[in-house]
Design goal:
This protein is α/β, with parallel strands linked by helices. It has two domains: about 110 residues, 3-Layer(aba) Sandwich (Rossmann fold), CATH 3.40.50.170; about 50 residues, no CATH class. Helix 4 links the parallel strand 6 and strand 7.
Length: about 180
């Protein structure tokens, strides 16, 4: 039996520019999400004009539908996600907790791409935490996400050894993402 990406619809959850790197890698592997869920447009810059998250821009450039829920507890977007059949979810820097009933919905679970060697440095600032801890053991983890923050069985990890340490956060982000 062969794997055909179109036979396995999935949703990508992510928000910042760093998440578009994961989307680019998925796309290069022939895995394009059916739907993208990202945070709502937010005021940015001096004029505080509403600006879309980078993941939304990525999706629109490719004609992929986008959901932008205020939350995942009672937003109407939750019904869209729960009333469709999905093979899996992929999460990278989404910025919202995903409730248990949503995590359990896709047939094959919810994968999280995280820029640290989990279980170290869970949370939204793993790169900065690693630099502050003066810990040069860098890497990326893919986990089967459960309802705790950046928690679940580790499915894959890749270690990275920077040539110089300590690095600036922007340099380490570039290596890990």
């Amino acid at each position: 039996m062969s794997f055909t990406p179109s036979d396995h619809p999935f949703v990508f959850f992510g928000t910042p520019e760093l998440a578009t790197v994961v989307l680019d890698e998925l796309e290069a592997a022939g895995l394009v999400p059916t739907l993208i869920t990202t945070q709502p447009d937010r005021p940015r810059g001096r004029g505080r004009a509403l600006a879309p998250p980078p993941v939304k821009i990525w999706a629109h450039e490719r004609g992929i539908d986008v959901l932008q829920p205020e939350n995942l507890r009672d937003d109407p977007a939750l019904d869209v996600l729960l009333n469709s059949e999905w093979s899996y979810f992929v999460v990278a820097a989404f910025g919202m907790l995903i409730p248990k009933r949503l995590l359990e919905h896709p047939a094959h679970g919810c994968l999280n791409v995280h820029p640290s060697l989990l279980p170290k440095y869970r949370g939204s600032t793993p790169v900065q935490s690693q630099i502050l801890a003066d810990d040069p053991s860098c890497g990326v983890s893919i986990i089967l996400l459960d309802e705790e923050v950046d928690h679940g069985p580790v499915l894959a990890q890749a270690s990275i050894s920077p040539e110089e340490w300590p690095l600036r956060a922007s340099v380490l982000n570039g290596i890990l993402w």
